[in-house]
Amino acid sequence: MSGRSAKLSAIMAGQCDRLATIEYTTTTKDAVGGDVPAWNTLTTCWVSLEPYRGAKNIFAQQLRPTISHSIFTPWFATPAVDASMRITFDSRYFNIQYILDLDNRHEFYEFWVLEGVANV
């Protein structure tokens, strides 16, 4: 069984054991009229977190973000998720770098993320 197939099997077996929030950012105004970023909930879902050992680079020989974890979740058709968003749980923040529709079957997402400060 390939690594990806094994991970899909684990997800199907109930390994999504963390309740996470996917958030998007909007801009509001502060007391003097300046722009202030604000995070809003897009959706809440159960996820599975898989840390990478070391760092994973997305594209060879190109300027690219480093990936610290993969986050897996069952597919949800709406709302749409994009790389400007973040995933939060347990007081941790994971900036989405890349989104995969595993096997292009609309059954599971794999998010390649970088843990750390919000990407505002």
How would you describe this structure to a colleague?
The chain is mainly beta. The protein has a six-stranded antiparallel beta barrel. The model has no long low-confidence stretch (mean pLDDT 80). It has one domain: Bacteriophage SPP1 head-tail adaptor protein (Thrombin, subunit H), CATH 2.40.10.270. The chain is built from one helix and six strands, in the order αββββββ. Helix content is 8%, strand content 55%. The N and C termini lie far apart (39 Å).
Give the name of the CATH superfamily: Bacteriophage SPP1 head-tail adaptor protein
Q: Describe the largest sheet.
A: 6 strands, antiparallel, barrel
- Content-based structural category: mainly beta
- The level 1 CATH classification is Mainly Beta
Residue share in helix: under 10%
At CATH level 3, the topology is Thrombin, subunit H
- Give the total of beta strands: 6
Query: How many helical elements?
Result: 1
Strand content: over 45%
Question: What's the average pLDDT?
Answer: 80
What is the rounded Rg?
15 Å
Task: Give the arrangement of secondary structure elements.
Elements: H1 3-12, E1 18-29, E2 35-57, E3 66-74, E4 86-89, E5 92-101, E6 108-115
